[in-house]
Amino acid sequence: MAKKNQKEYLADLLADEEEDSPPAPPHSDAAISRPNPALKNVSAPSPSASSSSPRSPAPAPANGPSARSTAPAERARGTTLLGRQSALARVASGEVRQVTQLLLDPARVRVWPGNARSYEHLSEDSCSELLDSIIAEGGQKVPAVVRRIEGDHHHDYEVIAGTRRHWCISWLRAHSYPDMQFLATVSQLDDEAAFRLADIENRARKDVSDLERARNYAAALADHYGNHMTRMAERLKLSKGWLSKMLKVASLPDQVIAAFASPADVQLKPAYPLAQAYGDKQAAPAIRKEAAKLAKEQSSLREKGSPALPAADVIRRLLAAAKDTPEKLEPIILEGAHGRPAVTVQSSNRQGVSLRLHSGHGLDSKSLLGVVNEALEQLELEGRGLQR
Q: Closest Cα to residue 163, out of 126, 104, 119?
């Protein structure tokens, strides 16, 4: 059945009931009360209000023509009231669901952290088409989905689906459109249902990257499905194999992602072999080291205003680094005063970093701590940094 709001559904239902009932005279007392079309919150008319009728005329003689004309009108009124009671019964049973739309101040609405979309990566450029559409139409036309929250003094609702719409309305209010309001539908959803609803919407969005969705799936696997991937795939109606690949890509750390010009460049098909290679304990340090070099190159290109390294080249270099035979890493020795060694990095592994502080380095305590920090930074650049 096509989606209708409650007002339209009740009107159609009553119209069907009237077609089946005897026609009322042109001046019959049977009248249909209509909800106020200006209301945003569509609600069912109350039975008591529906059963009230205008003041009836004085009774006519029992055998006169007025009595004969009144009988069909009474039957029509009774049929109409039965139709309304039937419609309200369907509302009460849940066959017709009440839809509440609100115009909200976006500052009083927070974004649900379980959504895949990264709010901090939204910008005027990435949302330009939606911004233009909202301005041209004089406001937001497609409502977002929110749910009411408790215990937050700064917010009354949180966005389940519609993060970009929330960002755009917030941006417009801060840039010459202070009267823009956030249009939203209020729903009662638990976290798992909210995740499924947000995921359905994000599947149709080309601007939600594979990495965003992959990390969102990884978090949801633990939060909502007890780390049972099969159950999660069934609930989301996804292929278990496809979901497994997404979760593998989600395992790539930020150190590796920094090698790309943007997280949006990390797509499932090319990134999956990289995630597999990173799963090799012997290859992972080499990938992190190459990723650190690539991140510096990308930063330099951005500062010069030059085009960034394409994702295909980044993945090719990272995979090549993984295939190279790991060479023996030279020890890191940092000097103190007069060229004498001050700090030596003896080892760096999953258990931690071992440093040797040499005597006779000629440095005060503050300068020595600076050399220690320098050693830790060099380990980070080589992909051997202290794991946090």
A: 119
Q: Residue 361: which pLDDT band, with cuts at 50, 70 and 90?
A: confident
Q: What is the mean pLDDT of residues 355-371?
A: 86
CB 362 within 8 Å of CB 387? no
Q: Distance (Å, rounded) from C-alpha 195 to C-alpha 198?
A: 5
Q: What share of the chain is helix, strand, coil (3-state, %, to 5)?
A: 50, 10, 40
What is the average per-residue pLDDT within 113-126?
Answer: 83
**Contact predicate 188/145, CB 8 Å:** no
User: Strand, helix or coil at 179?
Assistant: coil
Q: How far lies 302's CA from each of 124, 138, 311, in Å?
A: 19, 37, 15
> Which two tokens mark 137?
């139409």
SS3 (DSSP) at 283? coil
Q: In a 3-state reduction of DSSP, which class is residue 284?
A: helix
**pTM of the model as a whole:** 0.56
- Report d(CA 149, CA 110) in Å as an integer: 10
- Please give the structure tokens belonging to residue 188: 């009662």
Q: What's the CA gap between 306 and 384, in Å, rounded?
A: 30
Supply angle C-alpha 77, 79, 85, rounded to 5: 105
Cα-flanking dihedrals φ and ψ of residue 193, to 5°? -65, -40
Q: What is the DSSP letter of 60?
A: P
Contacts of 159 (CB under 8 A, 6+ apart): 109, 110, 111, 112, 115, 144, 145, 146, 166, 184
**Would you state the structure tokens that stand for residue 167, as one six-digit string?**
């960002």
Does position 374 have pLDDT exceeding 70, yes or no?
yes
* DSSP letter for each residue of 212-255: HHHHHHHHHHHHHSTT-HHHHHHHHT--HHHHHHHHHHHTS-HH
CB atoms near residue 198 (< 10 Å): 25
Residues 253 and 263: their CA atoms lie apart, in Å, by: 11
